[in-house]
Amino acid sequence: MSQATADPRLIAARVAPRRRMRLSWTDPVFRSIVWQIVIVGIVAVIAWYFIHNTNQNLAARHIATGFGFLDRVAGIPIGEHLLPYDPAVNTYGRALLIGVLNTLQVAVIGVVLATILGTLIGIGRLSKNWLLARLTGFYVETLRDIPLLLQLLFWYTILQGLPGPKQAFHLGHIAFLSNRGLKLPEIDWQPAHTAAVLVFIAGVVGTIQWNRRARRQQDATGVRPAVWPVALALLIGLPVAVWATLGAPFNPELPVLRGFNFQGGGTVSPEYFALLLGLVTYTASYIAEIVRSGIQAIPQGQWEAAGALGLRPGHVLRQIILPQSLRVIIPPMTSQYLNLTKNSSLAVAIGFQDVVSIANTTLNQTGQAIEGIAIIMAVYLTISLSISLFMNWYNAHIALVER
User: What would the pLDDT profile of 321-342 be if each residue is shown by its tens digit?
Assistant: First the structure.
């Protein structure tokens, strides 16, 4: 036998692949694969058992399954709807769609208002003004310790205790607040308004692109082109020009007291107002703490360096501190957005007809309990995943990338 053949290292190299091919319980990779297969199998068996058991119980009670009931006439009166709705004509499917839109209306507006209010309160807690810091601290510590359902009932009771339409609080006889809700002027919407809104959205996109171009030019040449003239032209000048070209319609409908109630104008119902007010004030107390902790996570040296350059505190906060703190704020802020959306299901307690309220009425009338619950779960899952995807994209967009 030659020396090369007898070399122990060569023998080990030839034997090692054969050892790796052997399936042994001592191999961690093999064990992980086996456990995954076992767990998936157990989950599949449990799911099959529940589905089989449910089908047997439904068949024994002669309960029909499926979503065919969505095409039947609903007959559910809905007080607030963004789409035209007639309970004597429209179906359960349209009623549920209106419930989804009502939920989105609460969630989207609530997220925007809670973010603004929470950010202001969080900054206020760090203020050097003793009174402002104590008031914002009292707000946070109080509202976070009171259950949300109790707050919703409190605001609803307050709104119901307002005077009637004849004694309503008013602002220049244009807006009225009473126990019937908030009455506001309403614009007679025309195609010209739709065109102006679309042009405004296009102007927002154009302004963002121009800002990016200005930033690239600044990085390349050190000179940054002015952004505000372009933004002014795209966001204000162009939409106004389109609106004026199409006839400039502007026919506001003012609310007028006639008899025992107001006629005309737009209405914000007490139920929606109380729900939005409760969700915004409650969620803002948590967002305030997130913003405060995010600002405090930035080293104090950033403030001192900016102060040494002669920058004002407000400018330092907007241009230096907040952009950096977003990387700390965004992840927990996502959870609060999801909480606000899911907490909107408490609307049923104060009579606002969201998707949960309409779905509950639907399943009570049709007996399709499983389908009704499945629709509610699918709606909230879709909304939650959409919020998570957008916030994760934004978090990755502002993340620091090493080059």
Answer: 888 888 889 999 999 999 999 9
Q: Which domain holds residue 376?
A: 92-188+251-397
Tell whether 120 is covered by a domain: yes
The whole-angstrom separation of Cα 89 and Cα 76 is 10
DSSP run (H or E) holding 262: strand 261-263
CA distance 256 to 403: 63
- C-beta of residue 107 within 8 angstroms of C-beta of residue 341: yes
Dihedral, CA of residue 306, residue 311, residue 314 and residue 316, to nearest 10: -30
Quickly count: other Cβ atoms within 10 Å of residue 59's Cβ: 11
Within a domain: residue 34?
A: no
Secondary-structure breakdown of the chain: helix, strand, coil percentages, each rounded to the nearest 5: 70, 5, 25
- The CA-based angle 38-42-48, given to 5 degrees, is 145
Domain with residue 170: its CATH number is 1.10.3720.10
How many CB atoms neighbour CB 3 within 10 A?
6
Contact between residue 80 and residue 66 where contact means Cβ atoms under 8 Å apart:
no
Instruction: For residue 181, report the phi and psi dihedrals to the nearest 5 degrees.
Output: 115, -165
Distance CA 119, CA 317 (A): 12
Residue where the block lists tokens 């934004």: 394
Q: What is the pTM of this model?
A: 0.80
Instruction: Tell me if residue 126 falls in helix, strand or coil.
Output: coil
As a whole number of angstroms, the distance between CA 369 and CA 359 comes to 9
- Kindly report, residue by residue over 259-274, the tens digit of the pLDDT: 778 888 888 889 999 9
Residue 151 lies in a domain: yes
The total number of structural domains that make up the chain: 1
Burial class (CB in 10 A: 0-12, 13-18, 19+), 169: exposed
Is residue 354 assigned to a domain? yes
Q: What is the DSSP string of 136-161?
A: HHHHHHHHTTS-HHHHHHHHHHHHHT
What pLDDT score does 2 carry? 47
Is the separation of the CB atoms in 178 and 169 below 8 Å? Answer: yes
